[in-house]
User: Which sequence fits this backbone?
């Protein structure tokens, strides 16, 4: 009907649980509208019955029912509308194992449950509809420490641990907003024996994040306005091409996907077919501007080798750099930061990643506003030592700068306001 909310409605059910499986009574929420409900091209392009319906999924949430509660709280519906708004605006779809860093109690209380993991709903199997396939992704509320463990290791591993702790979710991963302890406080052995061991063995399966970030090409003087000049805050960025956009989106979509291969497809790779990649052709690309005709064609943007670069991150994004280096690059993988305030993207690659346009001979390379940085294992180890204080945010004072002159690389950690108001 053209209202402001992206979802048509949210159904709320009283679920009696399963006493035999130690599943408590709870409220079960299900969204309607991320998938195609009508098949008339008003909201989602109808692409046939075999592909995904709309975005291909709906969200669910299970909230523990408090004693004496006769009606379900409505705040989960607001939360789901917020997540759906992000999906519609960015066209980044969710996958099982993904995480959402929310940084606020989900119910606006004093709760420690301030972030979310996503997994398959234990009761609702994928369904074939007249307008395509729909899967059901369940939101699971988690504490900050559990989110960080998911980032450092992988979401699926933390979800499995939550299933083994009844008060932290149990087999159906029911969120209890009154939970006052993390799974690591409830069972201290979980951190050392499961998570730390998993990080050491597997590395991190987090292959990309949406972030507040930017980069400058220090190879050129600022007054050089030649067309190949790189992107920096405050300048009009060149637009990412459709192929570049799809490749970066795929890195972000894969998120915490288990056993992701350490391969960046070639920059001219054709779009892959798949549930999450089959985007409706009429849906506007979220990285395009209103002046989309001004986008430089993919073939006309040449890959540029840069001599010196300056990377800029806000504190939250900067805190993930050690994870990127230790959990990804030292395991022969890649990691992508995609700017949430513009078209910029930064991908770190190791020497084991195939298909990158950054090479050992030219470790800094850009394709439009997409920068790739190749780091050798030796340099990664050195950076980890120099960036040690990123792990102690309470002692951090902004702005903070790190520099490796012989590598011609500079990293700055800046206040959020710099990214929110680039012209300042």
Assistant:
């Amino acid at each position: 009907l053209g209202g402001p909310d992206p979802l048509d409605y949210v159904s709320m059910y009283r679920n009696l649980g399963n006493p035999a499986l130690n599943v408590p009574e709870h409220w079960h929420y299900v969204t309607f509208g991320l998938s195609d409900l009508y098949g008339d091209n008003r909201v989602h392009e109808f692409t046939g019955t075999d592909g995904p319906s709309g975005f291909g999924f709906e969200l669910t949430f299970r909230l523990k029912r408090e004693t004496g509660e006769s009606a379900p709280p409505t705040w989960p519906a607001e939360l789901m509308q917020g997540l759906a708004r992000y999906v519609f605006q960015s066209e980044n779809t969710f996958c099982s194992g993904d995480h959402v860093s929310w940084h606020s109690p989900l119910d606006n209380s004093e709760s420690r449950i301030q972030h979310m993991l996503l997994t398959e709903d234990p009761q609702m199997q994928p369904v074939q509809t007249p307008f395509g396939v729909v899967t059901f992704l369940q939101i699971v509320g988690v504490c900050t420490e559990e989110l960080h463990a998911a980032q450092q290791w992988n979401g699926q591993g933390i979800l499995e641990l939550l299933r083994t702790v009844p008060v932290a979710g149990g087999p159906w991963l029911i969120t209890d907003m009154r939970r006052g302890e993390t799974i690591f406080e409830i069972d201290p052995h979980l951190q050392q024996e499961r998570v730390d061991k998993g990080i050491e063995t597997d590395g991190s399966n987090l292959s990309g994040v949406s972030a507040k970030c930017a980069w400058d090409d220090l190879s050129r003087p600022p007054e050089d306005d030649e067309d190949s000049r790189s992107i920096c805050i405050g300048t009009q960025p060149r637009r990412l091409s459709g192929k570049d956009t799809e490749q970066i989106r795929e890195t972000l979509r894969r998120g915490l996907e288990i056993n992701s291969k350490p391969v960046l497809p070639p920059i001219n790779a054709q779009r892959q077919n798949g549930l999450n990649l089959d985007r409706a052709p009429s849906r506007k690309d979220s990285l395009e501007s209103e002046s989309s005709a001004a986008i430089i064609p993919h073939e006309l943007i040449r890959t540029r080798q840069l001599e010196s670069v300056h990377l800029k991150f806000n504190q939250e994004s900067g805190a993930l750099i050690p994870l990127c280096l230790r959990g990804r690059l030292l395991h022969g993988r890649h990691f992508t930061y995609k700017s949430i305030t513009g078209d910029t993207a930064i991908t770190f690659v190791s020497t084991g990643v195939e298909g990158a346009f950054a090479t050992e001979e030219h470790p800094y390379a850009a394709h439009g506003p997409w920068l790739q940085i190749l780091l050798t294992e030796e340099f990664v180890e050195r950076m980890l030592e120099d960036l040690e204080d990123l792990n102690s945010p309470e002692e951090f004072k902004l702005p903070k700068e790190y520099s490796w002159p012989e590598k011609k690389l500079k990293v700055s950690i800046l206040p959020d306001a710099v990214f929110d108001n680039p012209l300042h």
In short: The first helix runs from residue 75 to 90. The radius of gyration is 22 Å.
